[in-house]
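Give me the 3D structure for non-specific serine/threonine protein kinase.
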Amino acid sequence: MPSQTGQTELKFPVIAGFQIKEQIGGGGFSTVYRAANSMLDIVAACKVVPLSPETTKHERKELNKEIQVHSSLKHINILDFINAAIVEPDGKTPWVPGVYMLLEIAAAPDVGIDEEMAHLYFNQLVAGINYIHGQGIVHRDLKPENLPLDVTGQIKISDFGLCSVFRYKNQTRNLTEQCGSLPYVAPELVYAPAQAYQAEPVDIWVIHLYDTQSYLDWCLCLDTPWDQPTEDSPEYARFLSGRILHEDPWNRIPQDAMCKYLDE
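Predicted structure for non-specific serine/threonine protein kinase (264 residues):
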């Protein structure tokens, strides 16, 4: 279809029988669309990362890593990776250049979940992360928008764009890359790459935050009370000292629950 400039308008390709429809989400580097397979009468999500002649080798390497890692992970609490395709920005096809990742469709949980549901989601998150770590992978970008629910109400860990392999053939390495999303990053990530860090505690830090917040009905719904976990944040300093537990809404945690938590 010609555009007003006389050039042919690029279209989305069909990926494994799925036609890309309307936009349903996205972030700084990608856009997520609903995709439908009319023959099978099913829908999926398609994450599209644009490619251009300016896309660097490092960026391509990271995208390939995301595809390889995510497609290898099979667990009830990991978002299913269905298929992938790459359209090169060489002008030889009528398709929009990009990396296309076809994924299981999921949605954000409702705000205001009760304590029972918060604990259910927490246990599912722990199960998913335990599996990922068992494969020698660390996620490094756990946050509410990367923890959607499927149609049955299962947590689905998604978006492995910042993941890393920390163990291969029984050899474990420390990491140095600074990445993640404020305010969820672990403190050691703030000081990378000057200081190397162990991989698994980076994800466990975020799990700890959700465990604490589940008593406040905050699990998977609200931000942490600090912008970044450093001494420059007065909120984080109050958290470390315990003073924040006397402030609203943290002081709503039941006393018996707090005693049990501190004993552990």
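The radius of gyration is 21 Å. Let me know if you want a second pass.
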